[in-house]
Write a structure and sequence with these properties.
This protein is an all-alpha fold. Helices cover about 75% and strands about 0% of the residues. Helix 3 packs antiparallel against helix 10. The longest helix has 30 residues. The two termini are about 25 Å apart.
Length: about 350
């Protein structure tokens, strides 16, 4: 935990240097950043920003535990969102109690389907999943772009977005006067405990841990690694697709090309969240709230301190870099200590 806080501190220190280099006051910038992120009036919006990060990073924690690197959550998130919008338009007259669970489920399945191909390519042919999942992000976004410029373009506004979803199918708001919807509560109060039990208390989590620690040990333990990797990828894709469904039905109420913030795409920021949370669902919940706040506060920082919105993205990128460096240092130190103890 101390190491994680140190990496965040180093990232903000580097961010302060960059802000100073463009002639702005870093203390003023960070004041407005945190004011816009964690003041009482900003908390609901921070939770809203944190929810897709949370769901995506929980899924990434599953695959990363097995040392399988799914970089394709952004594409899976978009596919889930697009599936949600299409189904919501097709079944707009179906009563919400019947339609909503089905639409949400299929959003998750859409993300899982998008993760299936790289999982098969890795397990059957040994093709690097980093490359395939990353490339499929572009395929997904261009596919969504084609659909929004073509068959699903809003016939009234003619913008590259779908028509607004029937309000009856929107996810219910839980605090009036805010945009805090039921999906936020489900993510923090249901998904996090389930993921914790799944990863830390269930046999499946133990198998993932063994596979991630040593593939050879997993083979000796008669673990079906092919099936395990595919299952982990499907779970990861499902949660990313689910995040897309929640974002469309809870916040945007239509599918649009900027479903994910351009300066801090949810799918890539989720990697930072998962790593910074040490693949522990409880820490991931805290980290997603923190980084969700950074994304949310960047707007206030831009407006009040005239610092570019992209600074939030720079800080997140710096956090990723320092986290990876800390993992490297930690790994080297542990090997050195183990070597001295002759273990």
């Amino acid at each position: 935990m101390a190491l994680a806080l140190s990496t965040v501190g180093f990232a903000f220190l580097a961010g302060a240097i960059i802000i100073s280099s463009i002639g702005k006051d870093p203390l003023e910038a960070f004041y407005w950043l945190f004011q816009g992120a964690f003041s009482p009036s900003a908390i609901p919006e921070t939770f809203i920003r944190a929810t897709p990060l949370l769901l995506i990073s929980l899924g990434l924690a599953v695959v990363f535990t097995a040392r399988v690197w799914n970089i394709g959550a952004e594409g899976q998130f978009y596919i889930g969102g697009m599936m949600t919008a299409i189904l919501s338009i097709m079944f707009k007259d179906v009563p919400a109690p019947l339609a909503l669970p089905v639409i949400i489920l299929i959003a998750g399945l859409g993300g899982a389907f998008w993760a299936l191909t790289p999982a098969i390519l890795k397990t059957l042919y040994g093709i690097n999943e980093v490359i395939t999942t990353l490339m499929l992000n572009y395929v997904a976004i261009y596919l969504v772009s084609y659909l929004l410029h073509g068959p699903f373009r809003d016939p009234i506004s003619m913008f590259p977005e779908t028509e607004t979803i029937n309000p009856a199918l929107w996810i219910p708001i839980v605090i009036q006067g805010t945009r805090l919807h039921l999906g936020v509560l489900l993510a923090f109060l249901v998904a996090v405990p389930l993921a914790y039990l799944f990863l830390k208390r269930a046999v499946f989590g133990l198998k993932l841990d063994i596979l991630g620690s040593s593939p050879r040990t997993a083979q000796y333990a008669n673990i079906n690694t092919t099936r395990l990797i595919i299952q982990a990828m499907l779970i990861s894709g499902f949660l990313a697709g689910l995040a897309g469904g929640f974002e469309v039905l809870g916040i945007q109420h239509k599918m649009r090309l900027d479903l994910s913030p351009s300066t801090s795409p949810y799918g890539y920021t989720g990697i930072a969240v998962a790593l910074l949370g040490y693949l522990n669902p409880l820490l991931i919940a805290l980290t997603s709230f923190f980084l969700g706040g950074i994304i949310n506060g960047s707007m206030t920082m831009h407006r009040m301190a005239q610092v570019p919105v992209g600074m939030a993205g720079i800080i997140q990128a710096l956090i990723i870099i320092f986290v990876l460096m800390s993992y490297f240092v930690e790994d080297k130190l542990s090997k050195k200590i183990m070597g001295r103890l002759k273990l």
